[in-house]
């Protein structure tokens, strides 16, 4: 699958799975607009991608807890392009600790704001560019923690709250944007192995039925959903937890 004419926005792409997405989409020919809370982190990923001879990649700073920063990110992308074909909501602060009292009030606010409010405002600010596309898709990396009744993670209650908010937002957004041709796709992975896409481990990490989910498989799910004909609205990917 090639994505040479796709313009893709990815939040929180300075490290971990966001970086993986940015590298893989660039390798497939997409023009990538990636953000990180700090511009330096985003620029490091851009440099890695350009080292692979992909020049159509752009770095932005975006703090998902700051509405003005989100608006600036969208405005910055709009100065480069008149449309976005795919928005990937990857950003959401991780907060560990099954004890509600273990986190400070500031950590709780930051976690819920980045995952919940940050996702809503990112979609809101990029929606005009998405509506300019003839194949607009919104992908949100939720988490198994956003699934009703899930309790197997050591994530803090605030993280569960943020992910539940993302799930609810994606559910109503899917209904309301379908008449405009926008597909809203959510992924609900449990903990997964995120091998470096620039290392040999990317292709050698086991992907058998008894193995943990891999980032390689998650990227394949996103590509599968995006690659379907426009009458195919895949709402969500849910995964068994090993």
TrEMBL record:
Family note: Belongs to the short-chain dehydrogenases/reductases (SDR) family.
Keywords: Oxidoreductase
UniProt-listed InterPro entries: NAD(P)-bd_dom_sf, SDR_fam
PANTHER family for this protein: PKSB (PTHR24322), RETINOL DEHYDROGENASE 10 (PTHR24322:SF736)
Transmembrane segments: none
Coiled-coil regions listed in the entry: none
Protein name: SDR family NAD(P)-dependent oxidoreductase
Gene3D superfamilies: NAD(P)-binding Rossmann-like Domain
A Pfam family of this chain: adh_short
């Amino acid at each position: 699958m090639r994505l040479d004419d796709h313009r893709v926005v990815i939040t929180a792409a300075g490290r971990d799975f966001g970086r993986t997405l940015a590298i893989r989409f660039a390798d497939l020919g997409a023009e990538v607009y990636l953000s990180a809370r700090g511009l330096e982190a985003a620029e490091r990923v851009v440099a890695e991608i350009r080292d692979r001879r992909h020049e159509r990649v752009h770095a932005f700073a975006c703090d998902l807890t700051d509405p003005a920063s989100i608006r600036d990110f969208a405005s910055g992308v709009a100065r480069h392009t008149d449309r976005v074909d795919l928005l990937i909501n990857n950003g959401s602060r991780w907060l560990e600790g099954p004890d509600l009292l273990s986190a400070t009030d500031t950590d709780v606010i930051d976690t819920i704001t980045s995952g919940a409010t940050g996702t809503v405002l990112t979609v809101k600010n990029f929606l005009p560019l998405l509506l300019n596309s003839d194949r607009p898709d919104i992908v949100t990396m939720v988490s198994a923690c956003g699934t009703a009744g899930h309790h197997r993670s050591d994530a803090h209650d605030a993280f569960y709250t943020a992910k539940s908010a993302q799930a609810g937002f994606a559910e109503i957004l899917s209904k309301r944007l379908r008449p405009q041709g926008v597909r809203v796709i959510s992924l609900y992975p449990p903990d997964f192995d995120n091998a470096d896409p620039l290392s040999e481990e990317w292709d050698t990490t086991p992907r058998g039925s008894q193995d943990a989910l891999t980032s390689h498989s998650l990227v394949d799910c996103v590509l599968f959903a995006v690659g379907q004909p426009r009458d195919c609205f895949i709402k969500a990917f849910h995964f068994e937890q090993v």
